[in-house]
Structure prediction request, 427 residues.
Amino acid sequence: MRPCPAAHGTACGLLDAAFQAIEASEALEFDTRAADGYIPMDQPPPRMNREPQTGEPDDLIVARLEGLYCPPGDFYIDPWRPVERAVITHAHSDHARFGHLHYLSTRAGANVLLSRLPGIALQTLDYGEPLALGATRVSLHPAGHVLGSAQVRIEHAGRVWVASGDYKLDVDPTCAAFEPVRCDTFITESTFGLPIYRWDAPRSIFDSIDSWWRHNASEGRASVLFCYSFGKAQRVLASVDAAIGPIFCHGAVEPLNRAYREAGVRLPAVGLVGEIAAKDKAVFREALIVAPPSAQNSAWLKRFGDYSDAFASGWMRLRGARRRRGVDRGFVLSDHADWPGLQTAIRESGATRVIVTHGSVEPMVRWLNEQGLQASAFDTQYGDDTVEADAAGAASGDEAPEATTTATTTTSESTPDASARIDRGES
Ligand SMILES: [Zn+2]
Ligand SMILES: [Zn+2]
Prediction:
């Protein structure tokens, strides 16, 4: 066992759990088919490694083969198989899929959802607006993850459950801020649910991106930033200093930009790379180019002449992920809560029972139980949607994460489950 640098001594197992999680993730195969689209409905469930739990008899949400189901309301939340009524927390492809008869989402997220799933039968709610579904009262509350993202609040017979979807607590100018919602039972994601994951303040991350871009521009070199095309790209566009130089996007990013603009999100003027003649390399000399990770190592990059590249993802927290990505710079920028953010959200929910859906499930369940909460897990198919997934794959490996001295300071002394794992997820 490695000694804990936070002076918990060698008996502290949290770091070992973190290392084991990283090593365990090496065994996962990462599917890039879903990189920028939705996961086909006919795909067999990749990770149903346990019998689906059904929970207690009168739970407000139970796990079924189709997805998380609310019996008294007769609806599903982000189901992965076709159902009659789906409440969608947000439009990332592992949470919002084709094939359901009726969809319910936030009004703020409608543009993006329809741009990804055109033609669906969609009903929308304003944040906080209640709706009777079956015997329940349902409302959607900001999750701070991407535009339109919501936590689902379900009230029935005097009890309240909240399903978080994906969330973050950090400031993001492109979506409504996370709102703590009091509940008895909180269903939480745990994408970055290990003590090694702690984000810097967003402003300082964007300052780093700006100075990287400014430096490249001063040397007449294009700056190509890879990030997920829905959510992260718009957050980057809205947060960088557009005075440094022109900004261009890959064609995969543009439809999302349009949906964000239509929803009233302010983004700077952005050119389309595809509209510039291939010989006009000089146009990009001082430019920032925002592209999905799928464009990496493609011939598309040739048009920029001399360029520096970078990748923005929470997985960039891991040195191995950065190295395997093979980019000049890795910016640790996530649309998920970090370890302290998860703890804060769970605490502020006031819930005495917590159910963990995806990410570092076992360490989080263990940690919550140690805090005196009643914690368990649902097996879900969330966390498979994005290309940052490959960064997670790249995060597997042979190297310790950096700055482990910051780990474990808020944790207890006991050893989390050795089967800790990092699951795939957009960040
Ligand atoms: Zn998401
Ligand atoms: Zn997710």
Notes: The domain at 14-197+335-406 is CATH 3.60.15.10 (Metallo-beta-lactamase; Chain A).
